[in-house]
Design brief:
heterodimer; A: mainly alpha; MetI-like fold; 2 domains; two-stranded antiparallel ribbon; B: alpha/beta; D-Maltodextrin-Binding Protein, domain 2; three-stranded antiparallel beta sheet; Extracellular solute-binding protein (chain B); SBP (chain B); signal (chain B); Bact_solute-bd_prot1 (chain B); membrane (chain A)
């Protein structure tokens, strides 16, 4: 009798303590995350420029979004960024990490140099490449002219601008995945490698048959990270091109930003934000399901 | 139990005090506090602070706080402050639809009475007052700057190829052809910024059709699917084909000055820009000005056009200072605005190459004088489309104009897209105002 009541009291006091300790965090999350999301959905039913009265339009904004070519183009661009980011960044990241893991301390200098892009802010990288890719005075044009070619316009050309952005994004984020996989490698026990070597595995066999399967959980979370990151990507593209020219490098987030803070269509921008929220959540959930199923 | 209660109370108070901490402001005893938001930078911010300091010296009962805000996010800041009820007593607007919205929403005060007092408004250029007027009331004071667009050119380049300032569009095209033949880009253009290229569109349309096509289209009486806009778009694409603009223009941003670098070095000969360009150069490449390399001419004319060819594109006043309707002491707030143009300030502003919209304004700078001559000859001013139009339509204009330059769209398609946006906006506004009216009648 006394025991149960003691257990009960203990449970109760843990419940009270956890509530008290969690309360500040929950409050912050409620104010800064949950409330804005709900409010965005509410605002998406209005037409509103921030100054004049809100005009209720029901699902008008949602209908507009479904027919908005620019939004779907932006979504398509996001998907391209997502797929190419994964295809470019993951293999290079793994390759660099594998090499660094193999050479150990001797690779420290390379490790630091390769990590530098990750240390720069996206805005600085944006400006750096804006000048470097300048069609008249930039690095690429200079190189092309050195070999007798013409001027190269990468950021002003609707056909090339998105690929250029993806290249720069990859340049920025590959080091992150390099470090991520390096951490994954350090989680692998030395014994496994020794055992594989004693059993007569070559370096190549060790990598493909042992290390890579063991890195699977790391790869999985890296893919999810990269996916969500590319779907909501904003800063570098905004600094570099503002989504232009002609929406050629428009992403969902840059489009939403320009609707909210340049066109001052706050209601429609909220709709876009909600659309993004739904699309990204869906894609993330589906991918996580798929990845987890394969494991079974 | 007790201890728990105490800790709960303590953590509660801590939270409350955290939240309250940001809300308390200390009020100087017995002084009326006024707040002013402006978006000037560099030396100009000091000029404004100086004006306000002189005001406070003369009126010790007032404490004026000057806040320097960011240009690009300013409209958003104002709308956020309006919702939160924390609008500053004095702030700026660029006029056009945004100012009309402020007035219709009762956010800003009617300044007619103060502007008429001692005929204060007569000191300003008429076009400036016209820009501050809406529904026959004056809502703002045009303080900062007269900015009209015109073509600035590098005199060295013109001398080298024996070129003279063009009078007509044909002359201009001949000059451009000569420059292209010699491997010089006729125009430096950074069009990732969009409004830079849009000025070509606006000027061409204004030269072709005058003020009416735009005013009618914006008011819903006309349409953007009109000869004037079609002409502008077609001309631009023709010029793009002929290579009149520097390479990669749609990828360059005005803020990073890449296009200006071409202009300074003579790789590009001309730049269609607002008259603030002299100030930009003074800050960026003073040597260029000192060597007398900078020339200016108004946008060339179309001789056989019916439209008035003296029209200028730009703004008289640039930043119009308004007083919040919630301001407790509007008269004092207006006096603060007046202090921004007191004798001392006028002198300082002139030294900084500002073109003050006062009738009495004089300058010693030859390029500024040329700009002034152009303005004094102008029979009217076309306010920048992107300030005149409501933001959502303005953005469509800027984007379609960039697409015209990029040739990803035909001029007719661009005009249609713009007209669709305008129609959508007007019909929404129509519903809003009928709803408001019916609500009023119900009440």
């Amino acid at each position: 009798m006394q025991q149960t009541s003691l257990a009960f009291r203990r449970k109760k006091s843990i419940a009270v303590a956890s509530t008290v300790f969690l309360f500040p965090a929950l409050l912050v999350i409620a104010i800064f995350i949950i409330y804005p999301i709900i409010d965005s959905f509410a605002t998406s039913a209005y037409d509103w420029n921030g100054i004049t009265d809100k005009l209720f339009v029901g699902f008008g904004n949602w209908k507009e979004m479904f027919h908005d070519k620019v939004f779907w183009k932006a979504f398509g661009n996001n998907l391209i960024v997502m797929v190419l980011s994964i295809c470019i960044q993951m293999p290079i990241g793994i390759a660099l990490a594998t090499w660094l893991d193999k050479v150990g301390r001797k690779g420290n200098v390379a490790k630091v140099i390769w990590f530098i892009p990750m240390l720069m802010s996206s805005v600085a990288i944006g400006y750096l490449f804006r000048y470097a890719l300048d069609a008249n005075t930039g690095f690429v044009t200079g190189l092309s002219q050195l070999f007798g070619g013409g001027r190269v316009d990468l950021l002003g050309n609707p056909g090339k601008v998105l690929l250029t952005c993806i290249f720069i994004i990859s340049w920025q984020f590959t080091p992150f995945y390099m470090v991520y996989y390096l951490a994954g490698y350090s989680g692998l026990s030395e014994d496994v490698k020794e055992a594989a070597m004693i059993d007569g595995a070559t370096e190549r066999q060790y990598f493909w048959r042992v290390a890579l399967p063991l890195l699977k959980p790391t790869i999985k979370s890296a893919v999810i990270l990269s996916m969500v990151g590319s779907l909501k990507y904003f800063d570098l593209v905004y600094v570099l091109t503002k989504g232009g020219p002609s929406h050629a490098s428009e992403l969902m987030a840059t489009y939403m930003y320009s609707m909210a803070f340049e066109s001052h269509r706050n209601g429609y921008a909220s709709t876009l934000a909600c659309g993004m929220f739904i699309l990204i959540s869906l894609i993330a959930i589906v991918t996580m399901r798929l990845l987890n199923r394969k494991e079974d | 139990m007790n201890r728990k209660a105490i800790s709960a109370v303590l953590s509660g108070t801590m939270l409350l005090s955290l939240m309250a901490g940001s809300m308390t402001t200390v009020q100087a005893a017995g002084k009326t506090k006024l707040t002013l938001w402006h978006i000037q930078t560099g030396e100009m911010a000091n000029v404004i602070q100086g004006s306000v300091d002189r005001f406070m010296e003369a009126n010790p009962d007032y404490d004026v706080e000057v806040v320097q805000k960011q240009n690009d996010t300013f409209k958003t800041d104002v709308s956020l402050a309006a919702q939160a009820g924390t609008l500053p007593d004095i702030f700026i607007t660029w006029g056009g639809q945004t100012m009309y919205d402020y007035a219709d929403q009762g956010l800003i005060a009617d300044l007619t009475e103060y502007m008429n007092k001692d005929n204060y408004k007569d000191q300003f250029v008429d076009a400036g007052i016209a820009q501050c007027t809406y529904k026959d009331k004056i809502w703002a004071a045009p303080v900062e700057n007269i900015s009209v667009a015109g073509i600035f050119y590098n005199k060295d380049v013109f001398d080298k190829y024996n070129l003279e300032e063009p009078k007509t569009l044909d002359d201009l095209e001949k000059i451009c052809d000569t420059l292209v033949e010699n491997g010089v880009a006729p125009f430096a253009l950074a069009n990732a910024t969009k409004w830079t290229g849009s000025m070509f569109f606006q000027y061409l349309a204004t030269r072709y059709g005058g003020l009416e096509p735009f005013a009618d289209a914006a008011a819903g009486k006309g349409s953007f699917e009109n000869d004037a806009f079609e002409f502008a778009g077609t001309k631009i694409q023709d010029w793009v084909d002929k290579g009149y603009f520097c390479d990669g223009f749609n990828g360059m941003d005005d803020d990073s000055g890449q296009a200006r670098a071409l202009f300074y070095t003579g790789s590009a000969a001309m730049d269609l820009m607002g008259s603030w360009f002299t100030m930009t150069i003074a800050g960026e490449n003073k040597q260029f000005l000192d060597d007398g390399k900078l020339g200016f001419f108004p946008f060339p004319e179309i001789p056989d056009s019916k439209a008035d060819q003296s029209l200028c594109l730009g703004t008289i006043g640039d930043n119009l200072y308004v007083v919040s309707n919630k301001c407790a002491d509007k008269e004092a707030a207006f006096k603060v605005i007046q202090s921004l143009l007191d004798d001392e300030a006028v002198k300082e502003r002139t030294d900084l190459a500002k073109i003050i919209p006062l009738k009495s304004f004089k300058t010693s700078d030859p390029v500024v004088q040329e700009v002034l001559d152009t303005i004094s000859k102008a029979k009217g001013i076309q306010l920048w489309y992107d300030q005149y139009l409501p933001s959502e339509v303005a953005e469509v204009h800027k984007t379609t104009s960039q697409e015209i330059f990029g040739k990803t769209i035909t001029p007719a398609e661009a005009d249609k897209e713009l007209q669709d946006a305008m129609t959508a906006y007007l019909s929404k506004k129509g519903t809003a105002s009928t709803e408001a009216e019916s609500a009023e009648t119900e009440a």
